[in-house]
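@channel sequence for tomorrow's demo:
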Amino acid sequence: MIKAERQREILSLLGGDGIVSITDLAERFGTSSITIRRDLSDLERQGKLNRTHGGATLVDDLHAYARYEGGTFEDRANTHEARKRRIAERAIQFVSDGDSLLINAGSTTTEFARALADHKNLQVVTNGLTVALELGKNASSGVLVLAGTLDKKKMATVFQPDFHDLMGIRAPSAFLGVVGVRIPDGPMMLTLQEARMNQAFVEASTEVTLLVDSSKFQAEAMYRVVPLERISRIITDGGIAALHREQIERLGIELIVVPDSPLDQETAG
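structure tokens (generated this afternoon):
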């Protein structure tokens, strides 16, 4: 394969997974790692990708993510909507009638709350207004909305940074959406306040499940919530890169990948 064709194929692969590794590309094209590094350098100079340690990501993904974080809650809810719904439908299999749950705010966790419509006698603590509204449609479930400052973009109440303890609340399971997942560091948030708030959810629970569509593995955020080893389970969609899948499984964390469907053809933004 000539250089131009190989580079077009690399960009095509990036368009599918959002990330590629040098090792995988070298094996795929039957060439050396040095040749692949040169290809990635050429494409980076053309502004078509961003080099990372051991691979590359699409520049467009970063732009789409910036639009996502800067948008309204409606913008977030409409991005990867089918993927989030399928993740939520898989996640409710870990919930039984009468369970006590912690659920944080977010568009994916709102889908999760909506998917819990047929569960009975749930007791839920949340900081998500849209999560509470969905759960409130079920007359048999009890919902406690935590007090805090209103974040209009996320339709959430946000605690003060030093507020670690959820008033002595403890629950067996927490279901969380986060800004990003950095491997091996852990789930990440954009602000220290958000990170500490979600840390409180983790500390108040025994089992923690992350509900994250595959774009969150490309997202950049500064503040870690907890080490990744504290997470019990990650539920995501089929867009997760093979490299990230291998890294998570190597850490011994349960990874559930929900298969793609024709509905998963949305674009970010």
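heads up for whoever presents: The mean pLDDT is 86.
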